[in-house]
Specification:
Layout lengths: L3 E3 L2 E11 L4 H4 L5 H6 L1 H4 L4 E2 L4 E2 L1 E10 L2 E5 L18 E3 L5 H4 L15 E5 H6 L13 H7 L1 H5 L3 E4 L2 E3 L4 E5 L8 E7 L2 E7 L6 H4 L11 H17 L3 E4 L8 E6 L2 E7 L30
Parallel strand pairs: 6-7, 7-8, 8-9, 13-14
Antiparallel strand pairs: 1-2, 2-5, 3-4, 5-6, 10-11, 11-12, 12-13, 14-15, 15-16
Protein name: MBL fold metallo-hydrolase
Keywords: Hydrolase, Metal-binding, Zinc
Family: Belongs to the metallo-beta-lactamase superfamily.
């Protein structure tokens, strides 16, 4: 898999699989289907299959190497370690939130921790929200997933519970970004004058750059998720930071710019892999989304 450097940090996507689970109207309740048709030229085929009318997503982890520390952001849906990755060499595992497709690879098929030398970072708010003792089963909220992928890490003494923000390395900081789940977090990168934001599920599709007020059907608090997304996009645009969501296929990571009262796609980080590479530098899709300005995504 192609990798890039952002400042002094090596960044590599570890792709688990891609699929097309839902139509846009189901994935993003209340979103006008005409938006997808209007931007077919760059949403298709990586982010939308217009013939089947299905949203395209990728399940992937991000491997970050900074100052001698290896950080794995999310672990995918299934137990096990991605091919070619030395599990003993991973120092920190960051679960941006505790949905099953971000925690499944915390363990091996037999239930042992997949990364025995790592500290696993779980947000306090998500541990409470997904605790089987009080959990109400609903899409994305599963006692079975917790018992399979979280409990073994807690039992092994490898978990570190965080809240608010937590420095990971000299260039990487974990910051709370609630809404998708109560404890959802993002990883901010600042190195050598360059910035990036590993955004987890703050965005599921680049169509949300055009309409950040629209949340996915998997967001437990859609209104707060939208406020968080607006804040993160504003910060990323102001700092020329790459936005690196968990589920973007194609170009995977995107630079956004302010355009009028909204945001536009400026360039993709992996253009050779992206149908979306066609929008590089064009600023397609500006819409009138109101957004607050801010100096920090916290």
């Amino acid at each position: 898999m192609q990798s890039i450097e952002i400042g002094g940090v090596a960044v590599e996507p570890l792709v688990h699989f891609a699929n097309r689970p839902l139509a846009p109207a189901a994935f993003f309740p209340g979103h006008d289907p005409a938006v997808w048709r209007a931007h077919r030229s760059w949403l298709a085929p990586d982010h939308w299959d217009p013939d089947a009318d299905r949203v395209g997503i990728t399940v992937q982890s991000w491997l970050l190497r900074d100052a001698g520390t290896t950080v794995l952001v999310d672990t995918g849906l299934e137990p096990g370690v991605p091919a070619g990755l030395d599990p003993a060499g991973v120092d920190l595992v960051v679960c941006t939130h505790l949905h099953g497709d971000h925690i499944g690879g915390n363990v091996l098929a037999g239930g042992a921790p997949a990364y025995p030398n790592a500290r696993y970072l779980f947000a306090a708010a998500d541990l409470a929200f997904f605790d089987p003792a009080t959990l109400v089963e609903e899409p994305g909220r599963s006692a079975a997933a917790y018992r399979r992928s979280i409990a073994p890490i807690l039992d092994a003494g490898l978990a570190e519970v965080w809240d608010g923000r937590r420095a990971l390395t000299p260039s990487l900081t974990l910051v709370a970004a609630p809404g998708h789940t109560p404890g959802h977090g993002v990883v901010e990168l600042a190195s050598g004058g360059e910035r990036a934001l590993f955004a987890g599920d703050a965005l599921h599709s680049p169509a949300q750059i055009l309409h950040p007020e629209v949340s996915s059907c998997f967001c437990h608090d859609p209104a707060e998720a939208a406020r968080t997304r607006l804040r993160l996009l504003g910060w990323a645009a102001d700092h020329r930071a790459l936005v690196v969501p968990a589920h973007f296929g194609g170009g995977r990571a995107v630079e956004v710019r302010r355009a009028g009262d909204g945001y536009a796609v400026h360039r993709w980080a992996f253009p050779a892999a992206a149908g979306g590479g066609r929008v590089t530098g064009r600023g397609d899709g500006v819409v009138g989304a109101r957004r607050p300005r801010g100096e920090d995504p916290e």
